[in-house]
Amino acid sequence: MDSYPRYQALDTLNSEGDEIGATGAEHLANALRVNKILCTLNLNDNEIGASGAKHLAYALRMNKTLTTLNLGGNEPGNFIGPLGAEDFADALRVNQTLTALNLEGNEMGDEGTKYLADALRVNNTLTRLDLSWNKIGIPGAKHLADVLRVNTTLTSLDLQNNRIGYAGAKHLANALQALTTLDLEMNAIHSPGAKYLANALLVNQTLTTLNLANNFIRDKGAKHLADVLRENQTLTTLVLGDNGIRVLGAKYLADALLVNTTLTTINLAGNYVGCEGVEQVANALQENQSLTTLNLEGNQIGDAGAEHLAHALRVNKTLTTLNLDYNEIGASGAEHLTNASQENRVRKAFPSFA
């Protein structure tokens, strides 16, 4: 990378899925020690293992230009693991340029998470950290929560598909200080976890994006979040897809939309709100003036539900994106929506009516 003229001005290198392995990672690490141009390096899906991670982490101690490093998606047998996490933690204690680190899918577990969390107590440059798919449990969530109470630099944390449960959600909820984006999709937090997070949002003034998709929060969890949406004035994006939310949960959220003036995006894909639930949402849309994106994909709303939404769209002038894929909408429902769209600037997304 540092030896050829064609690479000397390269500021972004994408080598995703190139099977460079630990040896390739070592060669790149050697180049990073002297390279003064490269800002973004994508090495996702490269089977670099703990050995390759060690070389790259050591290079980060000397490199002063790299700002984004992606090392996600290594296969079994070549995970970075806790050892690799420890090496990167050591590097983060001295590196002052890296702002985004992706370690998704590397089986670091609670042990590796602790190493990184400890490093974040002194690091003041990293703003985005992706630890999704890493088998992080309650202890790991606590390690992260403890450091979030003192770290004021990290703004985006992705913990998708880990094992933190509602106890882990409680730890994190009590530590929301500087985060603007938190992704907890697929963590089995259930309704108690939603309640802990909702309570935190009553006082939190920084979080703008919260992803709780696929967490089994159901109607009870939806109520906890809906209640806080009446008070919170910071959250702009809320993802609640695949949570078993039915008519009652839709009503709670719809009632919140009647008074909330901050939320611009809500994702309810893959729930069971049905025609009756979508009627509640449609009624709220006639009053709400802040929501711009609504995802109702896969909610069994049918033609009658589509008609309710069409009535709302004739009044609402704010919504611009509406996803109604896979809702059993036939020709009648499609006609209602098409006619309503002529009076509204919404962009529909329902190519499948079955």
TrEMBL record:
Q: Does the keyword Nucleotide-binding apply?
A: no
What are the recorded Gene Ontology BP terms? Answer: nucleocytoplasmic transport
A single Gene Ontology molecular function, please? GTPase activator activity
Which Pfam families does the UniProt record give? Answer: LRR_6
Looking at the record's lineage, which domain of life comes first? Eukaryota
Q: Which CDD domains match?
A: LRR_RI (cd00116)
Q: Which InterPro entries match?
A: Leu-rich_rpt, LRR_dom_sf, RanGap
Provide the alphabetized UniProt keywords: GTPase activation, Leucine-rich repeat, Repeat
Instruction: List the GO terms this entry assigns under cellular component, sorted alphabetically.
Output: cytosol; nucleus; perinuclear region of cytoplasm
Q: In its keyword annotation, does this UniProt entry include Repeat?
A: yes
Name the UniProt record assigns to this protein: Uncharacterized protein
